[in-house]
Amino acid sequence: MFEGRKLIIATKHKKEIVIAKHLNEKLGVNCQVSEDFDTDVFGTFTGEKERALSPLDTVRKKCLMAMEKFGYDLGVASEGSFGPHPALFFIPADEEFMVFIDKKNNLEITVKKLSSDTNFSGRSIKNEQDLEKYIKAIQFPSHGIILRKSRDSNENIIKDIDSIEQLKKHFKSMVDLLGEVYVETDMRAMNNPTRMKVIEETTLKLIEAIKSICPNCSTPGFVPINHIAGLPCSLCGLPTKSIKIEVLGCKKCGYEMEKIFPNNKKEEDPQYCDYCNP
Questions:
Q1: What are phi and psi of 38, to 5 degrees?
Q2: Any bridge partners for residue 125, and if so which?
Q3: pLDDT digits (tens, 9 = 90+) for 77-102
Q4: SS3 content of the chain, % helix, strand, coil (to 5)
Q5: What is the set of domains in the chain, with CATH numbers?
Q6: How far apart are CA 93 and CA 277, in angstroms?
Q7: Is the dihedral angle over the CA atoms 26, 30, 34, 39 positive or is it negative?
Q8: If DSSP codes are grouped into helix, strand and coil, which group holds residue 54?
Q9: DSSP-derived 3-state class of residue 129
Q10: How far apart are alpha carbons 221 and 110 in whole angstroms?
Q11: 20-37 mean pLDDT
Q12: Residue 76 above 80 pLDDT?
């Protein structure tokens, strides 16, 4: 269905580095990227332009816009969001969405991956000693860093800092002027190898979804559409909020099938039980 076809990857931030090789190899497509596509119109991580749509709506619109602009009937796009983990509130999380759209076959497949593997953070810093501790924790300079006036300010934002000498120079000038600087991680994919790894994992999840064929009509994309919680706690036996049953569905024919214990677990760790660990 996809062998030999050209596919546009809607990205400005070098995501094709981890997306293209897998799609080319496992789907037989020929991935293309255009430098003349500005994904910042959908919103920026630093807030100069707010994201108006949900991540899911944004990734879909991004993909369709690139396909239309450059004349492709096959496209892929991804979109990430960062914040507190929905279940483990004390740690940050990276939630990546990825969509595959095939206009020729009227096919659209979307996957989501939630990962706690992220260096997403930010804080106000007043001196070089605290700055050095922070940049070590977020793995600078392999991972990018951004300086700004304050957490909620879009003024005096400095991006693309790629050396400690450059960082200290900008930091000193801003501290001398403002008294403190808000320092945060750069979450753009090309400046964040940890996020790039999660995008690659999401790509593999997308390929798995594409290769999952509906047993009723043979359409690609027989993927989870719902789930039922209730995986029992291994200590007390009571149902937890963890997934016990996954419902797979086909968008084309509507066929559904339940899959019990989808994560190859028949019991859940007591740390995730509301009774054992309230």
A1: -100, 100
A2: 181
A3: 999 999 998 877 789 999 999 999 99
A4: 30, 30, 40
A5: 1-118+189-211 (3.90.950.10), 122-186 (3.30.1490), 215-278 (no CATH)
A6: 22
A7: negative
A8: coil
A9: helix
A10: 9
A11: 96
A12: yes
